[in-house]
Amino acid sequence: MGTVGGPALSRRALLRAGLVAGALGTAACTGPAPPPRLVIAGGVQPGVYISLARVLAEIWQARLGLPARPEVLMTAGSTQNMELLIGGRATVAISQVDVAADVAADVIGDAEPLALARLYDDITHLVVRRDSRLRTLDDLRGARVSIGPAGSGYQPIALRLLDVADIGVGGLGERAELGLVEAIEALRAGRIDAFFWSGGVPTDGIRALADELPIRLLDLGEALGRMRERFPVYSVGTVPANVYGLPGPVSCLSVRNVLLVPAAMDGETARALIDAAFAEQPRLAQASPAAVTIDSRSAIGTQPVPLHPGAVEFYRSTKGY
To answer: Which Pfam families match (predicted)?
Structure first.
């Protein structure tokens, strides 16, 4: 297909044009104008989100022939990522599905977040020193605890777990809102007794901590049933003992992570993004062991966040939908 009297456009040229148009949106749309190229809302360093976002940026530039590498934003995590996506300051975001679903419930129209894929599952870690007196979630009453920073995806989980345990934030001795790096240093220095974190297993920062300081993860088994009754979006996961040199396996909360774009993105662009990602799945797995589980059959499990129509087309072509 081409214009009269002009050269035919290649599929790659059309796709590149579609990516730019999909990012720009249309002049008739209301709200803030999205950026003129792909911008990926990532996460904290060290963390799985930021690692995957950087590899996705490289994959999309190379396989889609983009003129520039997509920008990768360092963020506090899921909550901030969703704010960036619906506000038009990012065109792609990684988020926990619980946070994404909460946001999607209040957004309609072009800014509505839709999923490209389920990526992998996060495990909520409740980390203490091996010699700590803390043994269960109930023991956090009166303790010095970091619940994660505002804007992260794991602070809402921490708050929900504390509520389920009838502790609440008010029942803590001291509350801190530290990112992963700061929380690790605070635990190492004895300034806090425990910290929450939600991430892939293993998380590099926690594995590095375990290499120099014996740690435990508090078993959340007693609270998980009550948590899932209130919030069915969560599942039960297990951290094997050998991951962090733990005394034994630990029952933890599990939550899915999803790759999201706005509903305004055109179907061809959305399909091209997920197609390229799956074509380079081994590279994603190299970026993080958590991404080893990414495949086209499990990737459709983004409920309660619906898939983008372009992603549906891709999965149907692979017979995964």
So the answer is: NMT1_3
Residue 202: is the preceding peptide bond cis (ω within 30°)? yes
Number of domains in the chain: 2
pTM: 0.80
Mark which of 234, 255, 276 sits at the end of a domain: 255
Taking the C-alpha atoms of residue 74 and residue 50, their distance in angstroms, rounded to an integer, is: 7
Query: Is 225 in the same domain as 284?
Result: no
Q: How many C-beta atoms lie closer than 10 Å to residue 168's C-beta? A: 12
Residues 51 and 85 reside in one and the same domain: yes
Radius of gyration of the chain (CA): 21
Other CB atoms within 10 Å distance of the CB of residue 249: 14
Question: Per the domain annotation, does 96 fall within a domain?
Answer: yes
Does position 12 have pLDDT exceeding 80, yes or no? no
Contact, 196 vs 104, CB < 8 A? Answer: no
Paired residues of 198 in beta bridges: 124
Which structural domain range is residue 304 located in? 11-121+257-317
| Mean of per-residue pLDDT scores for the chain | 87
113-129 and 174-176 strand pairing: unpaired
- The answer as to whether 266 is a domain residue is yes
Residues 30-84 pLDDT 10s: 333 333 589 999 998 777 889 899 999 999 999 999 988 999 999 989 999 999 9
Instruction: Note the pLDDT tens digit of each residue in 183-219.
Output: 999 999 999 999 999 988 888 889 999 999 999 999 9
The tokens describing 18, both together, are 């579609």
CA 259-263-269 angle, to 5 degrees, is 70
Direct distance between the N- and C-terminal alpha carbons of the chain, in angstroms, rounded to an integer: 30
**114/123 Cα distance (integer angstroms):** 23
